[in-house]
From TrEMBL:
<dbReference type="GO" id="GO:0008081">
    <property type="term" value="F:phosphoric diester hydrolase activity"/>
</dbReference>
<dbReference type="InterPro" id="IPR017946">
    <property type="entry name" value="PLC-like_Pdiesterase_TIM-brl"/>
</dbReference>
<dbReference type="InterPro" id="IPR030395">
    <property type="entry name" value="GP_PDE_dom"/>
</dbReference>
<dbReference type="Pfam" id="PF03009">
    <property type="entry name" value="GDPD"/>
</dbReference>
<feature type="domain" description="GP-PDE">
    <location>
        <begin position="2"/>
        <end position="229"/>
    </location>
</feature>
<dbReference type="GO" id="GO:0006629">
    <property type="term" value="P:lipid metabolic process"/>
</dbReference>
<protein>
    <submittedName>
        <fullName>Glycerophosphodiester phosphodiesterase</fullName>
    </submittedName>
</protein>
Length: 235
């Protein structure tokens, strides 16, 4: 069955990477949640897409320069979602609780390496062993470090259109999958390794990735993907 991952939570209908978006993703009956993490000055793992808080909050500056106390003063809501704060990754683990959903944590280490982030995220996940976690990154060095720390974790390389590095990395550290953009869909490398595509929002694209039996897709509208799957009786 093609897995549906809620991209940045249910980000088409809720503030991206927020607790309401995560909650909506759980309620949508998606198979997984994808979110992005960074490390801040006081050592907490923070859920946000960009390196800077400017686009998604009412503040400004690099996340890495924030203390948790300062970050928690910012708002990421909008007029429909008021008083929503930037979540820590631990708050997401707590929110997931007993829900049966895969948590795909993307380590955003492509601009800043955030020394020690790999060990921190694995230590945190180990506190919640009942939660089904997997890791992804655009940065192969992060995946190599994760593999050294944990020989069994599920790892995925996120790519742009060029997939040249994928199979060598797969040979070296045993990837679970590659996460390519939709536009890479005809690349022959994708015959050699399972793929979860991003970001699949149009109904015809969702239907296409079911039809080719892709391993998975990341979508901002998981409830739409779930309803197409139900309607078409796709297994
Ligand atoms: O997991 C794939 C996708 O999330 C990568 O793109 O920019 O949304 O993090 P981005
Ligand atoms: Ca991401």
């Amino acid at each position: 069955m093609t897995e549906i991952f809620a991209h940045r939570g249910s980000s088409g209908t809720h503030p991206e990477n927020s607790l309401p978006a995560i909650k909506a993703a759980i309620n949508s009956k998606a198979d997984g949640i994808e979110l992005d993490i960074h490390l801040i000055k006081t050592g907490e793992l923070i859920v946000m897409h960009d390196e800077k808080v400017d686009r998604t909050t009412n503040g400004s500056g690099y996340l890495k320069d924030f203390t948790l106390a300062k970050l928690k003063k910012l708002e990421i809501g909008n007029r429909f979602f008021r008083k929503v704060r930037v979540p820590t990754l631990e708050e997401v683990f707590k929110l997931i609780g007993d829900a049966e959903i895969i948590l795909n944590i993307e380590l955003k280490t492509d601009v800043f390496e955030y020394a020690g982030i790999e060990q921190k995220v694995i230590d945190l996940a180990n506190k919640y062993p009942h939660i089904n976690v997997m890791y992804s990154s655009f940065n192969p060095a992060t995946l190599v470090r994760l593999r050294k720390i944990d020989s069994t974790s599920r790892l995925a390389l996120i790519t742009h259109e060029n997939l040249d590095a994928v199979l060598d990395l797969h040979k070296k550290i045993q990837l679970d999958a590659v996460h390519p953009p939709i536009k890479a869909k005809d690349n022959p490398v994708l015959k050699e390794i399972p793929a979860r595509y991003w970001t699949v929002n149009k109904e015809e694209d969702i239907a296409y990735f079911y039809a080719i039996h892709a391993k998975g897709m990341m979508t901002d509208f998981p409830e739409v993907a779930v309803s197409i799957r139900k309607k078409e009786h796709i297994q």
